[in-house]
Fold this protein.
Amino acid sequence: MTDKNQASEREALEMLLPFYAMGKLDPNERAQVDAYLDSNPDMRTQLALIEDERVATVIDNEAIVAPATL
């Protein structure tokens, strides 16, 4: 595999990380991301940041109070 192909594959898998964090991947995609994370443990830091951001977004959205209706 060429460096360009490896970079494209890496980018594609990294783009799946937010969906991985939300549990929205099919089993095949999840297995691909799991294998990628196993071979690139430094990406677990990126995954942790994505998960933290997702949780913060949920908390922020839950804190929004809908305007009162008249």
In short: The first helix runs from residue 3 to 15. The chain has four helices and no strands.
